UniProtKB/TrEMBL annotation:
Keywords, in A-Z order: RNA-binding, tRNA-binding
InterPro entries recorded: DUF4479, NA-bd_OB-fold, tRNA-bd_dom, tRNA_bind_bactPheRS, YtpR-like_sf
The name this protein goes by in its record: tRNA-binding domain-containing protein
Gene3D superfamilies: Nucleic acid-binding proteins (2.40.50.140), YtpR-like (3.30.1940.10)
Residues annotated as domain TRNA-binding: 90-201
Length: 208
């Protein structure tokens, strides 16, 4: 679940993205200051728009924002008040973390993609399909996990590349909009002191 807010360009509206619509036809229903966006074919919710949200909670930041459990409880109370039965689920865990490549194998249906097993915490490894030329076993890099919004506004969801499942994206400095990022392909290379699982901090992890 992705919370996004940009008062200057969108207005006082919190956009809550629940799942990837994958370009399917959408419809919506609005009750009061709450609008539910759903798939036309089956009614499944893909997003919420909560208008005049500053009357409910204080939001700090632009783009993807992190809300407290108390904030989300207030939003859920608003949904219930307007007659919606669904509830928002909060996940305040970091969506950009240090990861380390533990294994790579060539994609069976591509001459440039690799299927990588990437450790993202002490007890979790995820599969990520990547085309970065510098992806190699042992490399530490920054991983955008499902639920992340990239600086250009694109969203990270679980997916598949040429039939192989992928649960995130290893990021280049340019994709992270880092200052003086090289304008070439390749994921960010961290030094060995970076700790797997820690949240991405540009001041700490980038010396461009």
């Amino acid at each position: 679940m992705i919370f996004t807010y940009n008062k200057e360009h969108v207005g006082d509206v919190l956009m809550v993205i629940v799942k990837d619509s994958k370009g399917a036809k959408l419809d919506y229903e609005r009750k009061g200051n709450v609008s539910r966006v759903f798939l036309e074919k089956n009614g499944e919710t893909v997003a919420w728009n909560i208008f005049e949200v500053s009357s409910l909670i204080a939001i700090d930041g632009v783009g993807q924002v992190t809300l407290s459990d108390e904030d989300v409880a207030k939003l859920n109370a608003e949904l219930t008040k307007e007659g919606f039965s669904e509830q928002l689920e909060n996940d305040p865990s970091p969506k950009f973390v240090v990861g380390q490549i533990k294994e790579t194998v060539a994609h069976p249906d591509s001459d440039h993609l690799n299927i990588c097993q990437v450790q993202i915490s002490d007890d979790k490894t995820v599969q990520i399909v990547a085309g970065a030329p510098n992806a190699a076993v042992g490399l530490k890099t920054i991983v955008a996990l499902p639920g992340a919004m990239m600086p250009n506004g694109s969203l990270i969801f679980p997916g598949a590349l040429r039939g192989e499942k992928s649960f995130g994206m290893m990021c280049s400095p340019r994709e992270l909009a880092l200052p003086n990022a090289p304008q070439k392909r390749g994921i960010i290379e961290l030094d060995d002191t970076a700790v797997v699982g820690e949240a991405f901090n540009p001041a700490k992890h980038w010396k461009g």
